[in-house]
Amino acid sequence: xxxxxxxxxxxxxxxxxxxxxxxxxxxxxxxxxxxxxxxxxxxxxxxxxxxxxxxxxxxxxxxxxxxxxxxxxxxxxxxxxxxxxxxxxxxxxxxxxxxxxxxxxxxxxxxxxxxxxxxxxxxxxxxxxxxxxxxxxxxxxxxxxxxxxxxxxxxxxxxxxxxxxxxxxxxxxxxxxxxxxxxxxxxxxxxxxxxxxxxxxxxxxxxxxxxxxxxxxxxxxxxx
Length: 224
Fold this sequence. Notes:
Helices cover 48% and strands 16% of the residues. By secondary structure, it is α/β, with parallel strands linked by helices.
């Protein structure tokens, strides 16, 4: 059973998310918080597997909550999935940089929200397709120094990274490349180690920044 807390300053939204998640097999909501400070306290008290956190809350916003629960200085991090009504605003990059394992829109259906929670609980990540496309646009317009790997990525690591950045889960990557789940995880771990990154979200962002993923002709993303 995946234990989840929900943090949102609007009670109807919290109630809706609780009902949605509790209806999912293998997921249980174990607490709710109405602001960021309460969310951090609740998370430390009940130690959920995943915290589903709104981006805009009083006290502490979703970025600050994510940093306190899942940041690189947290000794025992809790997986965070950020959820928002905004397609892409100034907080998205900050939330992902702070350590969020997922980013969803509140309009996402029950299946996608459930999958995001399961992915986060399993150390994976899921980002709303709309947000992924907008992230690509942001990175394609930005000029920034791109870190270089400590050693060149192998051809298979490049393949896995490209599919990861396109939003595929580990299982989907394995099916696409005819690899076992364990092999996919090994390649992702290799990519993270060579780049000095913490998680697959950062790896996906690096793929965008380094030009390894491009827009397709209309159906989403495609590897270069």
